Amino acid sequence: MGYDLKLMGADVVDGTGAPALRADVGVREGKIAAIGELGEAEAAISLDATGKTITPGFIDIHSHADWLVPGADHGSLIEPFIRQGMTTLVGGNCGFSPAPVSPRSRKAAQEASKLIADEALDIEWTDMDGFFSALESGGVALNVAQLVGHGAVRAAVTGHLNPAEPTDDELGEMERLTRAALEQGCVGVSTGLGYPPGIFASASELEAFAGWAADEERLFTSHLRAYSGTSGTYEDGTEARPHNLRAIDEILSVARNSGARLQISHLIFVGRNTWPTHTEALATIERAREAGVDVAFDAFPYTAGNTTASVLFPPQILPELETILQDSEQMAGLRAFGEATFERIGFHLRDIQIMNANAPRFEQYNGLFCGDAAERAGMDIWDFYTSMVVESHRNARVLIHRYSGDAEDESALRAVLAHPLCTIETDTFVTENGHQNPASYGTFPRILATYVREGLFGFEEAVRKMTGAAAERLGWSDRGFVREGAAADLVVLDRARLADRATFAEPDAGPLGIEHVFIGGQHVIDAERYDASARAGTVIRA
Fold first, then answer.
1. What is the pLDDT of residue 239?
2. For residues 341, 344, 345 and 351, what is the CA-based torsion angle, rounded to 10 degrees?
3. pTM for the full model?
């Protein structure tokens, strides 16, 4: 029997970490049908891949581009992801999923969607089944899997900025919504403990959500409560243990008590004085795993990450944030607190780069660091920053630098990336407007080119972190590997030419060496050609 596609003569790196094997790969009906010597076999399309390397398509285990794929033109918008070899994204991270929504949360969800999308998302569904059905009816340009966000569930029941602990009845409704989302196909539950409403959640509430994920043998992921050694999160004045380590302790306890499989999201260390804590952080995670907690983590290969500008402010002021930021007396105290905190962690507002101010008065400063922007605007940097937060309705999008290192010192970042429990993620999205995050263009090539070349890990191990390891965390055996019966999500690359080119100054420079990308056996990247109209992906329902 012939094949729809035959890739010939490549070095096959299968996603398990095993050494490369010289082989042909035959594809039939969107799946890998054979691996071996297929020289005489007939095929509708044959591609000579001699001297090239075949890998599984890369899995982005932590993406926010699920807010983009409902758009009719998303195929063009997400081209940078596919050009770097990504064939599957996992959305719904940081507690921020497009469903469920209720009359109570719909307006806030649509407003918050402007953090990611150029225009507010037209949310026509109420639950995950509706969201999945909307994607399936329009088709998706790459494979999409979803987590259900604790924040979305809580907001649907009690509101986005309600700090009160849920009543028993409210928690019961949260359970109903979460279990429904899991039944409808979500691969797990995510939390965003640095953002409202997740920032208000108690340990017992988190254990309940983690337990519901565990009941279905699904993943429980967490954006931690703190990523810096000092923060506004813990108010008891105890600083014997850095706040980021206390946040790790907290979420490990949640996983231990609930029996959940835990994925710590984007393990980062914010501020120069926090970087040294990476050794104890990794040791803490290793001890928990040795004690029986099923825990792993993910990271991106850059020293900055995208987030909302309002993430800097302590949780207790978030319900009244705009009022406080416009009150000179309260701002004086907040500024003093902020300056003292920044000094302790080795960070400042000057280390924040504006992606999209999302406010007409400030959009001329997109791409600038806040210090330079404030100087051009003739404003004090705190006045500039707080005004941008208020006028954007908290939707200003920024890149925060000094994440796990800088251009001179990446030791913390490299220790995380090299760890065997680390999978690779982008934690990003792309937009038509504003300054981009280089992770949207270069994450996977940067791992395979820069960090392999510099000896952080071998090529096969790098591929495992981006494919098979992510698939295993998600419970998949039919995706993320080059093996018979698996989905034909494949990348053909030229290791001799492979290079990442995206930088913080020029973030939208695409990689070199990613020559072909196949999604479900469909040829979506062929050298310079990209088929933006192809809907080659599938909605992956657990």
1. 60
2. 70
3. 0.96
